[in-house]
Amino acid sequence: MQAIIDSDTPSHSAVSLCNITAGYEHSLFQNLSLEIPHGLFAGIVGPTACGKTTLLKILMGMHPVTCGKAELNGRAVEKIKPGIIGYVPQLGSVDWNFPVTVEEVIAMGLYTNGRILPWLTKHERHQIYDLAERLDVSSCLKQHILAISGGQRQRTFLARALISNPKILILDEPTSGVDIKTQHEILHLLGSLNCEGITILLTTHDLNAVASHLPWVICFNKGVIAQGRPHDIFTNEILAKTYGGDIVIVKHEGHLLIAHATPLQFMDQP
Question: Does residue 74 sit within a domain?
């Protein structure tokens, strides 16, 4: 029996990369292809300098490709309308000395839609407050961005990305630089946003966070090594190919625990 497809459901993927070649002085990717359907919550994992951030930049039209085709929602990335993508950068790439408050950072997201008014309307201020309330940063809206915690900064930039109601949310290392409790809170929040229909794609070094919270993972090292559910593709063979070895995987009562160690081995706990 064939599935019945809603007429409002797009026939194209949220993310489509076809035979992409790109890099810097030398090619980083060659013939890279990747499809991510609408509504997926996916994480890209891989070692440092394997091309994860460059991949995200290609999707946002911030890095050129030598050949191939990159599309979001069926449109070439360079033709995407403002506000379709929400982007949360790595916290380490942000200049925290820039004199802005939490409220002003969130308001920056309104300008991705081509907005030109230099002041906020009453409706926009309500939007900002409501979103800040949901992300638990409403109490620090008037504080300088440097004066708040790492977790609060991460949620502030997430609010900035969400204020334009994007269809696709892209996050570069959202769990980096925050404690385990904050990691859990951020990933749980992203899961809730995904349930509301937003396609989410993030990069991370934290394999355990991915195994615990994400339904889909892409193992990446200058190309797609494998993709699927964490329990299916977090194996010695795939992780060794992705990271070069020294990974221990422990399975216990349906949960995964992954650690860098020597020798490389797979253990099934009773």
Answer: no
